[in-house]
């Protein structure tokens, strides 16, 4: 029997979510959007993804309300993609996947996450042990880890060499 293209026989909310974010590259586009990437070319250089695939993923994520397209320049017309609350709600999933990759695949630790206001590294569930709270996404600061290339070629990776809060827009024009 041929492998179907969807999970129609699965009455499961995981299957429903995977219908939207289960394609190759999709969650990495969302990850970059949470890191503050907004512009097509920045996604392109940071992900090293074929143009057609990126265009298709951005379109699908916009259609699903995970990204929102916003015009930032009129002539020539240019749009950027801003992650919505629906997309921000994927953050715990991405954080857990990263943790799983490190623990079970031995992936290098490229960055870690801390509570911006007190500096405490987040626990496994995104909590701050010092403040006794789950840290809201805008208050999460990402910090370069030892596995990160200290001299990357693309401007997005260069911008991510300094500690910065999630969602803070990355401006690569001066990077
Ligand atoms: Zn804290």
Automatic annotation (TrEMBL):
Keywords: DNA-binding, Transcription, Transcription regulation. It comes from Streptomyces olivochromogenes. Residues 12-109 form the HTH hxlR-type domain. This is ArsR family transcriptional regulator. Transmembrane segments: none annotated. PROSITE patterns: HTH_HXLR. One of its GO terms (molecular function) is DNA binding. It holds the Pfam family HxlR. It comes from the Bacteria.
């Amino acid at each position: 029997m041929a492998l179907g293209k969807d999970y129609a026989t699965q009455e499961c909310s995981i299957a429903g979510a995977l219908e939207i974010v289960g394609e190759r590259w999709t969650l990495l586009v969302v990850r970059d959007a949470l890191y503050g990437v907004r512009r097509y070319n920045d996604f392109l250089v940071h992900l090293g993804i074929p143009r057609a695939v990126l265009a298709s993923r951005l379109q699908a994520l916009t259609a699903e309300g995970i990204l929102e397209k916003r015009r930032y320049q009129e002539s020539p017309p240019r749009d950027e993609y801003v992650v919505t609350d629906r997309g921000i709600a994927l953050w715990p999933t991405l954080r857990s996947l990263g943790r799983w990759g490190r623990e079970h695949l031995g992936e290098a630790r490229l960055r870690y996450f801390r509570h911006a206001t007190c500096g405490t590294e987040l626990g496994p569930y995104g909590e701050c042990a010092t403040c006794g709270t789950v840290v809201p996404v805008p208050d999460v600061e990402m910090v370069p880890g030892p596995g990160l290339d200290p001299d990357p070629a693309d401007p997005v990776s260069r911008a991510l060499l300094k500690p910065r809060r999630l969602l803070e827009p990355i401006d690569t024009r001066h990077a």
